[in-house]
Amino acid sequence: MIIRNPSFLFFLLIIPVVIYRIKTRSKPGAIHYPTAMLIRERPTWRSRLAVFVPYLPVLALVLMILALARPQSGRKETLIRREGIDIVITLDVSTSMLAEDFVINGKRTNRLEIVKQVTRDFIAGRPHDRIGMVIFAAQPYVLSPLTWDHNWVESRLQEISAGMIEDGTAIGTALTAALNRLRESAAHSKVVILLTDGVNNAGQIPPELAAEAAQALGIKVYTIGAGSTGPVPYPVQDSWRRTVYQTVELDLDEKLLQKIAAVTNGAYFRATDTKSLKEIFQEIDRLERSVIEMPQYQDYIELYPLLLLSALLLLLAETILTNTVCRRLP
User: Fold this and answer.
1) Parent domain of 112
2) Tens of pLDDT along 281-303?
3) pTM for the full model?
4) Backbone torsions φ then ψ of 33, nearest 5 degrees
5) What gap in Å lies between CA 273 and CA 17, rounded to an integer?
6) Same domain for 92 and 9?
7) 59 assigned to some structural domain
8) Statement to judge: residues 64 and 192 lie in one domain
9) Alpha helices in the chain (DSSP H)
């Protein structure tokens, strides 16, 4: 139990004064007889009850003061040790991700939509990991910090679209942004999953330098090259604003991705279709795990309504008793 407003408890200091005043005021006058023992009557239950009735408002006052202090029960804040790692997923959202060379449920779909679906499944399968997310094109954008709130991460994931950031592919800058999310992490194992379908052509930080920084920080980088080999269908709008497809060939710098993975003791994967992309994330899912601490919370239960109700019942009881069985004749 905790007390939210403990300063109100100082009002309890007036209770002894109130009790003293009640005792002083209720002390009856007496005529002393030398043979008082002979005329003393045995007290009845009504007389015994009448002694306590004046103190019912005092008890009600105590309960109201306690209610003002807002006692709360049932809230727990504990640390649960769980097996997991800290992972930052870094996704390319440049317009090249609109190429429709992946298929799902027999329907041709662009690369980004498949990546979003597979990433969502990957996140759902790792409930004990902290997940962060960085998206990038010509510059990076931190979509989510490291968190256990995977529902929130997945909701943010659904908001992304190709072309939402200035077009380009800044692999080195994006990797650096991901490393910054993990730099202060206390997890024993820290991982970046970097997925792109292009060639580094933007940003001020060379990818090789970012890879060396990851190595120095003890962060593994798993790189994924997305996209099939050869020409791919790419949607464009004609003069009538209709979507038509052109066959284009998009470059992928596999050597760079392989180098980044090798320098950081990670691994490079090539996803040429939906099946291979799912298998890659399943392979990464078999990563090592480390012990981390996760806070668990339980909601507070407010006790002041119960205290106020009890105080009201005491005042009601005092009123009823004073005007019925404990009524005093003038």
Assistant:
1) 82-294
2) 999 987 666 665 656 555 667 88
3) 0.64
4) -110, 140
5) 83
6) no
7) yes
8) no
9) 15-26, 36-39, 45-52, 56-68, 111-124, 150-159, 171-182, 207-217, 254-263, 274-284, 304-322
